[in-house]
Specification:
It is built from 15 helices and ten strands. It is of the alpha+beta class and 482 residues long. Among the domains are: 204 residues, no CATH class; 129 residues, no CATH class. An eight-stranded antiparallel sheet has the order 4-3-2-1-7-8-9-10. A two-stranded antiparallel sheet has the order 5-6. It is elongated, with a radius of gyration of 28 Å.
């Protein structure tokens, strides 16, 4: 056979469409992994810490959270007064009634030096048990790292981009996992952990758990995206609206209910786009101290003739079925409202009520039944994502998902390290196919992902153009990245 014929046969074998597409997907998977691995490790570790927040809080703050049960309980205004004596000049912003007779009440204050402290009060004696810095504790810092890497909006966008690229990793990884020739249980469904070949060992330890964990990891990514700054905010603006007639067209501010989540999760995602109603003091004389309601009877709210204060608002919330653990955010300014919010493990029990600070009238009362289909899905997904919905089993399931993410990240890095070129300065990426393949399938994937997730679509276009027109054409760069 002539040299030209041999070369032709070799080229035709190497450049078969299936092989070219496989190498292209492998290259995508490689670069996506290099970008995503550090973020996935951070998200998995911080996610595990936040997943076990109830247990960690109980262990770390047991002396603050638990009290000796007593026969009598002080009023909530008395409990707040106890806090104000210890922190003179501090502004009380939120109160969470004790959820059981052996639990403390929690009063959030902003001090004169702008610290946000959660102050724990014995509801039976009024004793202030201590405080926790809400901006600088384990869970607060973990949450900030998990959501924005401690660098604000830029970190939020990077986390979102990494999460979206995680979807690219899942899709490309599933394609690479599919048997290319004859199906074999070993290496496909059962990892060959006994193999003496290190590449086989690490490949199976990466690919097989990845196949089993693909749905769990995809669930984590998709249920986390609604909380991101770009995709999540756009999604909320489209699907998080409520008709104005739900609260009788009461005066509204330009501030949204989601503004209450600046110091942590106070109100559910589903109501973040709900405009904050405004209190009106027309016909009420006790403007400055939230005193007696006016003589006009209210349709729904604090009983007419009852002082509109923290005590009556909490009593109203309990009467209307707010589950234990609900919080009351106090009015801010002359038009502010009391906001009762319950964010329990079971999203069907969520409650968000805005109450006029003068009349005690309920201006808005939003429950599970008022959510649209997609907000319901988001809330249910978030509850499972955070391990809150079905107890220990939920926490363990999400722990398993986070551990698989860590395993895939570590094994992916090891596989790259094993196959990296020994020559310094080379990355060792899978080579670009020598000939241009049919780009219809890759472009279709880019288009679908771009429509669903704009950041990943834009980044995919940039990466494809950079890879094809720059990295594969400039000799010095081609040597490094191929």
């Amino acid at each position: 056979m002539s040299k030209s014929a041999t070369a032709f046969n070799q080229t035709s074998t190497v450049q078969s469409p299936g092989h070219r597409f496989y190498r292209t997907v492998w290259r995508w998977h490689f670069y996506a992994g290099l970008f995503v691995i550090p973020f996935m490790l951070i998200l998995a570790i911080t996610g595990i810490i936040y997943l076990f927040k109830p247990q960690l809080d109980t262990a770390m703050y047991h002396n603050l959270m638990f009290v000796q049960p007593g026969a009598n309980t002080l009023s909530y205004t008395e409990q707040v007064h106890s806090v104000q004596k210890i922190y003179p000049g501090a502004t009380v912003t939120q109160v969470t009634p004790n959820i059981a007779v052996d639990r403390s009440s929690e009063v959030l204050v902003t001090t004169t030096d702008e610290r946000n402290l959660m102050v724990f009060v014995d509801p039976h004696t009024g004793q202030v048990l201590g405080s926790r810095d809400e901006d600088n504790n384990l869970q607060a810092i973990t949450r900030k790292i998990h959501g924005e890497l401690l660098i604000g909006k830029l970190g939020d966008y990077l986390v979102e981009l990494a999460a979206c690229w995680g979807l690219v990793l899942l899709i490309s990884g599933l394609y690479l996992w599919l048997p290319r020739n004859k199906f074999s249980v070993l290496g496909t469904l059962i990892p060959r952990l006994w193999s003496q070949n290190k590449r086989v060992f690490w490949r199976d330890l990466h690919a097989v758990p990845g196949f089993y964990g693909i749905l769990l990891i995809g669930f984590l990514i998709l249920t986390g995206l609604p909380w991101t700054g770009f995709w999540g905010e756009t999604f909320a603006n489209v699907y998080g609206k409520f008709p104005a007639q739900m609260w009788d067209d009461v005066p509204q501010s330009t501030v949204l209910t989601g503004s209450l989540n600046q110091r942590g999760q106070v109100v559910p995602w589903a109501v973040e786009q709900l405009p904050m109603p405004q209190s009106t003091d027309a016909g009420h004389s006790n403007h400055g101290n939230h005193g007696e309601a006016g003589s006009a009877p209210t349709q729904a709210g604090v009983i007419p003739g009852t002082t509109v204060d923290l005590n009556s608002v909490i009593a109203l919330a309990q009467e209307k079925g707010a589950p234990p653990g609900f919080s009351v955010t106090l009015p801010e300014g002359e038009t502010g409202v009391y906001t009762v919010s319950a964010f329990p493990g079971d999203p069907t029990q969520e409650v968000t009520m805005h109450i006029d600070q003068y009349s005690g009238k309920v201006l808005a009362d939003v429950r599970w039944k008022d959510y649209g289909l997609l907000p319901k899905a988001v809330e249910m997904g978030a509850a499972i994502h955070m391990g809150k919905y079905f107890g220990w089993a939920n926490q363990l399931l999400m722990l398993l998902a986070a551990l698989i993410v860590m395993l895939l990240s570590i094994t992916g890095a090891v596989m790259w390290w094993q196959r990296r070129p020994q020559e310094p300065g080379l990355i060792g990426a899978p080579a670009m196919p020598p000939y241009v393949q049919n780009w219809r399938v890759p472009l279709a994937i880019v288009a679908v992902l771009g429509l669903a997730f704009p950041l990943v679509g834009l980044s995919l276009v940039v990466v494809l153009l950079l890879d094809y027109f720059v990295l594969s054409r400039i000799p010095a760069l081609k040597r490094v990245f191929n």
